[in-house]
Amino acid sequence: MRLIATTIIALRALRRNKLRSVLTALGMIIGVGAVIALVSIGNGAKSQVEASIASLGQNVITVFPGNFTSGGARGGWGSASSLTPEDALAIQNEITGVVAVSAEVRDRQQVLANGLNWSTTIYGESPEFPGIRDWPLTDGIMFSDAEVRSAAKIAVIGQTIADQIFPGTDPIGQTLRIRNIPFKVVGILKSKGFNYFGTDQDDAVIIPYTSAMRRVSRRTNLNTILIQAVAPEHMPRIQQEITDLLQQRRQGRDPDFTVRNQLELAEAATQSSRTMTTLLMFIACISLLVGGIGIMNIMLVSVTERTREIGIRLAIGAHDRDIRLQFLIEAMTLSLLGGLLGILLGIGAAYFVTHLYGWPVQVSLWAIGGSFAISGLVGIIFGFFPAHKAAQLDPIDALRFE
After folding, report:
1. pTM, rounded to two decimals
2. Would you put residue 154 in left (φ > 0), alpha (ψ -120 to 50) or beta?
């Protein structure tokens, strides 16, 4: 009964000063709202990156050119390549747990058909490419190993190419010219849209890598090698075995390649956004600290204003623990009310940003629960000193206070 009575007295005291109570809780409202909004936007960005990486396929390991030393000069990813089709074939034949391998050659070319032209990326790939990238065809077929061996002039196109070069018509069976070389369209890839880096994945033409090397780019080396592992738990072992195999094929020369798995690519892609989210979260936590200081300040003012009231309560039999509990309840009520309103504000702000800018958001339940718990903890921590000060007042001195 004493707890209930004390709670009622605390709530009545807050109700008597509605405007001051709301303004006191405003710091908590802004702090919690900022935490919820930033966590939601950060989680949304992270999920978008993960979805973009997942669109590259499942359990994918990529061999990049680079990490070599030549005449004292060292290079990184994308440096002059010495990757060859024989390297890709060796990986496929000698590494256990490898499901598929695609030798990849990339080039930027103008393509023409039906009096229309379009600048696009030409990908020279193996027949396993759609399986590795988890990229099915909506129409037609993929070229075969026999067509790769013969450097056949056939192509599989993305949806953007179909829309730009073959508007309103069926592209299957039609001719697409690359560097004035006729390629027969045999398939259309399912639309994937834009990836996290803003690149239109459907703006692509896929041809046999042998055709790309001999007929289009006229090069002898590959840009990358795509490998699909049988399962995620086998990826570290396969990655190391690929590194050892390629190094063995180079007969002890300095490595001129870099092997990365999908998780490492995702980590690199999310690092900058995670750093920015952490920085903004730190700023939001400062807002919570400022809100807590505001609560303590107002509670100290309240203790001074209500000194005679405290003296009367002590004089008629209230214990110091009752006074302490009353002011702690007031501080916690302000803090928790601010936390609740802040959660609503943060969720609303996150979805408003989505509506305004199209950014993805992902509201986190742990962030909501954590923010609410922290707001209550802030109320206890910053409300304890004013509550203790009120409880230590001498009843006689309090009654004399003017």
Report:
1. 0.64
2. beta
Nearest to 211 by CA among 330, 87, 127: 127
- Give Cα separations from 17 to 29, 66, 301, 387 (angstroms): 18, 69, 12, 18
Could you report the per-residue pLDDT of 216-236, keeping only the tens digit for each? Answer: 988 889 999 999 999 888 999
String of b and e for 75-102 (b: at least 16 CB within 10 Å)? beeebebbbebebbebbbeebebbbbbb
Q: Which of these, 8, 33, 12, 24, lies nearest to 386 by C-alpha position?
A: 24
Which pair of tokens denotes residue 35? Answer: 């935490």
Number of Cβ within 10 Å of residue 40's Cβ equals 25
Q: What is the largest CA-CA distance in the chain?
A: 105
The CA distance from 38 to 40, in Å, is 5
- Sequence spans of domains, the chain: 2-52+270-400, 83-249
Which run of H or of E encompasses 128? Answer: none
Lowest mean pLDDT among 137-141, 147-151, 167-171, 391-395: 391-395
Pairing of strands 137-140, 181-189: antiparallel
Residue 157's DSSP bridge partners are 188, 205
Sign of CA pseudo-dihedral 81, 86, 89, 94? negative
Q: Are 104 and 206 in contact (CB under 8 A)?
A: no
